[in-house]
C-alpha cells in the first residue's frame, strides 16, 4: 500500500524543493550586503573606509551621512558614536568614536577617536 493510497501526500524530492526556490534577490534595489568583517585591530581602522556622503540641518540639528563600508551607511549626529537621539537607530560608529562637529555650510564632519581628530569633507 503506497503513501497516496493511504491518504498521504508524497513529499517533494530534493530537486523539486530546490527548483521551487526563487532565483535572485527579493529587493533588487536594496544595498548589497557585504560579508561581516572581523572586528579589531587586524581589520584595519574604520576611519580608512569612512566616507562623508552628505550633510543637512534637521529639526534635531546638524546631521552627516556617512558610509563605513558597502551596504553600511547612515546618519550621524554630534555626540558619542554619532548616535542621533530620537532616531531609534543604533549608533553607527564604533565604540571610542565621537562626532565633535558637523559643519553644514562647509560640508565637513569632525570626528574624534581616542584624542585623534579626523576631518572629512564632501
Report on the architecture of this protein.
The structure is a single chain. About 7% of the residues have low confidence. The protein has a domain of 77 residues: Roll (SH3 type barrels), CATH 2.30.30. A hairpin with a 2-residue loop joins β2 and β3. With 122 residues, the chain is mainly beta. Helices cover 9% and strands 35% of the residues. The protein has 2 helices and 7 strands.
Give a brief description.
This protein is mainly beta. The protein has helices at residues 14-20, 46-49, and strands at 51-58, 61-69, 72-76, 79-80, 97-103, 108-113, 116-121. The strands form 2 sheets. It has a 4-stranded antiparallel β-sheet with strand order 4-5-6-7, with no helix packed on it. Strands 1-2-3 form a 3-stranded antiparallel β-sheet.
Highlighted features:
four-stranded antiparallel beta sheet; 122 residues; 2 helices; SH3 type barrels; 7 strands; mainly beta; three-stranded antiparallel beta sheet
Secondary structure layout plus pairing:
Blueprint: H1 14-20, H2 46-49, E1 51-58, E2 61-69, E3 72-76, E4 79-80, E5 97-103, E6 108-113, E7 116-121
Antiparallel strand pairs: 1-2, 2-3, 4-5, 5-6, 6-7
Low-confidence stretches: 35-43
What's the CATH first level of the domain at 45-121?
A: Mainly Beta
Give the CA-based shape: elongated
- As laid out across the biggest beta sheet, the strand order is 4-5-6-7
Compressed to H and E, one letter per element, the order equals HHEEEEEEE
Secondary structure: number of strands: 7
CATH architecture of the domain at 45-121: Roll
Distance between the termini: 74 Å
* Integer-rounded radius of gyration: 23 Å
Mean pLDDT: 80
- Briefly note the CATH topology name of the domain at 45-121: SH3 type barrels
Structural class: mainly beta
Count up the helices. Answer: 2
Strand content: 35-45%
- Percent helix, as a range, is under 10%
Largest sheet: 4 strands, antiparallel
